[in-house]
Design brief:
Layout: E1 5-8, H1 13-16, E2 24-28, E3 31-32, H2 36-42, E4 47-53, E5 59-65, E6 74-76, H3 114-120, E7 123-124, H4 131-139, E8 145-148, H5 154-161, H6 169-178, E9 183-189, H7 196-207, E10 213-220, H8 238-259, E11 264-266, H9 268-274, H10 281-284, H11 296-307, E12 315-324, H12 325-341, E13 345-352, H13 369-375, E14 384-388, H14 405-412, E15 415-419, H15 424-432, E16 435-436
Parallel strand pairs: 7-8, 8-9, 9-10, 10-11, 12-13, 12-14, 14-15
Antiparallel strand pairs: 1-6, 2-3, 2-4, 4-5, 12-16
Helix pairs in contact: 7-8, 8-9, 11-12
The chain binds iron/sulfur cluster.
């Protein structure tokens, strides 16, 4: 248990009552705080009594009156105040099992913790939860939760997750939804394993739990070149991707007419592989599944079109954008639009092939520093290099292969700018780093 306060937010209740970094939270209303779920539940009251151990080992009892849902304004050293639960599965498509040896230790940690799902949006399989954990989620109203379902077929799920306890996901989802918990579902789709009829059945099963099962994102399996000793998996090709689009579009049309939403959506990659254009923005509604790559291209394209008139006409600049194979066409098309508004903005786009994980990995987020170094011609670079923020480890300026932004800047002797690729921020960066024409 890690109940040590790391930070007290300015002007918060915690600051007002004298809580400081380094203090230990012992109990709330005389109840032990085992983890973040206990904490969130116990502070949801108008009057609470905190027992705090100060740095000098003094024990303080603090009574607080507040609004029911008002937060205290403390952050703990560990976000879940406990060790993260590791996963008990060995999924046939697990990306962590397909990492090369010798990468940073933390990259190999397989978490499967519903508390992280609630706090950070991680997907969980529900396989390592006891019944009492499910009851605690319901009692504490831990909602929404993101669940990796993959299939509702019990035998197939056991096989896909390599876990004999993985078959009861549908019962668990039923229990959670009956308890009022909202769930976003994800399906990693593997050709000839859980696609086709299996996928249709899974989606139809989950639809029975709508609206508490709020939506389903379907993403294609990713395969690296490090699969030695792992089972054979296929990738989607044009034909098999088209088949899924066809099957799913029939369900989407049915759901739109019944409940006004497509309910299930395929990630952008399916459309790219199938050579089909992606749907319009109304199809993606609030873009809730953007983290799964569902609707990213649509959002980027629409934002570029909307913000194109903001491109400063009397400026000039030169940029190089680095991206992966999947996004190359879309990013190039956006750059052509920018150039058509202001021809004095010069942008070239570099398509990086993923030599580190293998060329079947085409997304920008898994490009490494070494691949950029080896594939970008120094002589072709503009004044600034633009990369996607998701190539870097969360909150750090380091690529997955431990090369830092600074090392790459020194290597190319250029400033590197990072961008979320919402479309809007790309236009902003281009405007900010262009210069007035003399
Ligand atoms: S749940 Fe499956 S995919 Fe996720 S980390 Fe565990 S083995 Fe890997």
């Amino acid at each position: 248990m890690e109940n040590v306060v790391a930070k007290v937010l300015p002007n918060s209740i915690a600051e007002e009552v004298g809580i400081e970094a380094g203090d230990k939270l012992i109990s709330i209303n005389e109840q032990e705080v085992k983890d973040i779920l206990d904490y969130k539940f116990l502070i949801s009251d108008e009057v609470i009594i905190l027992e705090i151990e100060k740095n000098n080992e003094e024990i303080w009892e603090i009574e607080i009156e507040k609004e029911y849902d008002e937060d205290l304004g403390v952050e703990f050293k560990k976000s879940i105040m406990d060790e993260a639960k590791s996963c008990h599965n060995k999924c046939i498509f697990c990306f962590i099992d397909q990492l090369p040896k010798g990468m940073r230790e933390s990259l190999y940690f397989k978490d499967d913790d519903s508390r992280l799902s609630f706090l950070q949006g991680n997907f969980v399989t529900l396989t390592n939860l006891k019944d009492e954990d499910l009851e605690r989620i319901i009692k504490y109203k831990i909602s929404p939760i993101n669940v990796s379902v993959h299939t509702t077929n019990p035998e197939l799920r056991k096989k896909m997750l390599n876990n004999r306890f993985a078959g009861n996901v549908y019962e668990r989802l039923k229990k959670l939804t009956h308890g009022g918990i909202t769930i976003n579902c994800q399906i990693v789709l593997c050709p000839e394993i859980n696609d086709g009829e299996e996928l249709i059945k899974t989606v139809e099963d989950l639809y029975k739990l709508y609206p508490l099962v709020k939506n389903i994102a379907v993403v294609p399996v990713g395969i690296t070149k490090y699969r030695e000793g792992l089972c054979n998996l296929k990738l989607f090709n044009k034909e098999s991707a088209l088949k899924q689009l066809y099957n799913i579009s029939k369900l989407q049309n049915k759901y739109i007419s019944e409940i006004g939403t497509p309910f299930v959506r395929l990630s952008d990659e399916f459309y790219l592989i199938a050579g089909k254009d992606i749907p319009g923005s109304e199809f993606y509604e609030e873009f809730d599944q953007i983290e799964d790559g569902v609707g990213m291209i649509r959002m980027f394209r629409d934002n570029i079109d909307r913000k194109l008139n903001n491109i400063n006409n009397n400026k000039k600049g030169s940029f190089s954008i680095i991206t992966g194979k999947s996004a190359f066409k879309e990013v190039s098309s956006a750059c052509n639009k920018v150039k058509s508004v202001n021809p004095n903005i010069n942008i070239n786009v570099f398509k990086i092939l993923n030599k580190f994980f293998g060329e079947d990995i085409t997304v920008a987020g898994l490009i490494t520093g070494e691949d950029i170094k080896n594939q970008v011609d120094k002589n072709m670079l503009g004044d600034y290099i633009i990369i996607s923020k998701n190539m870097l480890r969360t909150g750090e300026n380091i690529f997955l292969d431990d090369i830092t932004i600074q090392q790459l800047e020194e290597y190319f002797n250029k400033k590197i700018l990072t961008c979320e690729y919402s479309g809007e921020d790309l236009i902003e960066i281009i405007n900010s780093y262009s210069e007035e024409e003399k």
